[in-house]
């Protein structure tokens, strides 16, 4: 399932959820798993340790996962953050993503969905469980018109969503990396997105991917 040794943390104040997720994932020997029942305890841990990916509950007994997510991405931007929650409200999902999250999973997702989402997020994609994806696509965001994309922009957007880097996309499309970077900036402007994660999220919302 995973090719390299990965440090994965689970932050959830429900012991049964913690143990269930740990049991699901610990069969993979390439994963080193750490569990926390408090967000602050995890922040203390990550200050002195590398964490590749964290499964973060939205409602914790010592604070909001939304705020913890923002803190994690601000201070450790390379750490992949996936929300794992019973909160299925569209506004909460989007707020979590706007705070820098790399994905969102509902706790009723089956085991394979969770594993697939972890792998997708580690590969640079924005990962959603099936039900979350349906919630996101259920109604467009009224404040944003669907951007009109050129054929080349669609190609680049698809490549970005698949986790390809600028040099890789340039090689695939036989253009210079500088050209790809120009297209990236144009796409961000068209979608009024702050970063590539938000860009992919909006494109997914409008079924452009």
From TrEMBL:
Residue stretches making up the HTH luxR-type domain: 142-207
Domain of life per record: Bacteria
UniProt key word Cytoplasm: no
Pfam family, one: Response_reg
Gene3D superfamilies: 3.40.50.2300
4-aspartylphosphate: residues carrying this PTM: 57
UniProt keyword annotations, A-Z: DNA-binding, Phosphoprotein
Keyword Phosphoprotein: yes
InterPro entries: CheY-like_superfamily, NreC/VraR/RcsB-like_REC, Sig_transdc_resp-reg_C-effctor, Sig_transdc_resp-reg_receiver, Tscrpt_reg_LuxR_C, WalR-like
Record domain Response regulatory: where: 7-122
PANTHER family: TWO-COMPONENT RESPONSE REGULATOR
Listed name of the protein: Response regulator transcription factor
Organism encoding this protein: Sphingobacterium micropteri
């Amino acid at each position: 399932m995973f090719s390299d040794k990965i440090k994965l943390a689970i932050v959830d104040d429900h012991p049964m959820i913690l143990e269930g997720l740990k049991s699901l994932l610990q069969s993979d020997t390439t994963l080193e798993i750490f569990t926390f029942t408090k967000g602050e305890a995890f922040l203390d841990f990550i200050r002195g340790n590398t964490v590749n990916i964290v499964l973060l509950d939205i409602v914790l007994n010592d604070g909001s996962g939304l705020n913890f997510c923002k803190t994690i991405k601000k201070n450790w931007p390379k750490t992949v953050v996936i929300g794992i929650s019973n909160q299925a409200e569209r506004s909460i999902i989007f707020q979590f993503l706007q705070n820098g999250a790399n994905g969102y999973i509902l706790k009723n997702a089956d085991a394979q969905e969770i594993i697939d989402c972890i792998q997708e997020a580690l590969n640079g994609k924005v990962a959603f469980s099936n039900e979350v994806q349906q919630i996101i696509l259920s109604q467009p965001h009224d404040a944003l018109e669907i951007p009109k994309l050129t054929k080349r922009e669609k190609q680049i957007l698809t490549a970005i969503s698949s986790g390809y880097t600028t040099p890789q996309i340039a090689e695939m499309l036989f253009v210079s990396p500088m050209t790809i970077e120009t297209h990236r900036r144009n796409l961000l402007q068209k979608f009024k997105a702050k970063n590539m994660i938000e860009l992919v999220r909006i494109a997914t919302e409008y079924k452009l991917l």
